Amino acid sequence: MRTTSNPAFRNLPTGGGYGNYAGFGQPYQAQQYGGYQGAPPTTGERPITIDDVVTKTATTLALTLVTGFVSAWLVLTGQVAPMALMLPGMLVGLVVSLVIIFKRTPSAPLVLTYAAAEGVFLGGITGVFEAIFPGIAWQAILGTFGVFGAMLVVYKTGAIRVTPRLTKWIIGATVGAAVLMLGNLLLGLFGVNMGLRDGGALAIVFSLVVIGIAAFNFLLDFEAANEMIRSGVPAKWAWWAAFGLMTTLVWLYLEILRLLSYLQRD
């Protein structure tokens, strides 16, 4: 499997050899896809299909939206302080995501717990932004789904092929952006302003770049999910694919929300 910047898609099993199920892209070809040839079936479990990935991802996303909406409403109506939702949601989401990644075994309860926690976290943040910039929440949601849909079309049509060179570029850009954000955070603690998150022109450009990097990460996520389908791993791994896609969606949403707040400032 090609390398991906999304930790959720690393070290996936290579099993099954069923390979007759349609994926995100072109039909499965056992001996031509990156030199991989599926191993003979070793279990009686049903192999994963594109329907499994879509269903599990939709379920996970729906739970995040529901908990997010409730959390945002609680913040906007003043019933709960934002930090009372944001901090627990962030901590639970972080811990559960690490358990999922290091456990390396698909678990529907863990993925759904992660989705609910992220919904609470995002809802708390969204409530704060919505109170300051009315209408920004729907703009961010529509923008996130718009980018996701556009990258899915790009992947399915083959307009941009996920080559090893492109994969390395995306991973390098992702790591670079993460280092810059971490450096900006640490320097900010000592009163040093790099201008990456202050709402100025540089901050707007940086957010646009990060949104572009997050969007291209979807291509790697789609490719990883497609390889799971082509190699015929058990259907339960659809939850793992859903988790991987959700992590990129959360990242993209937060960055779009931030960019919109910059653009709406006086």
From TrEMBL:
Sequence intervals crossing the membrane: 57-76, 83-102, 108-129, 136-157, 169-192, 199-219, 239-260
Range of residues in the leader sequence: none
A Pfam family the protein falls into: BaxI_1
Keywords: Membrane, Transmembrane, Transmembrane helix
Domain of life: Bacteria
InterPro entries the record matches: BaxI_1-like
Name of protein: Membrane protein
Organism lineage string: Bacteria, Bacillati, Actinomycetota, Actinomycetes, Pseudonocardiales
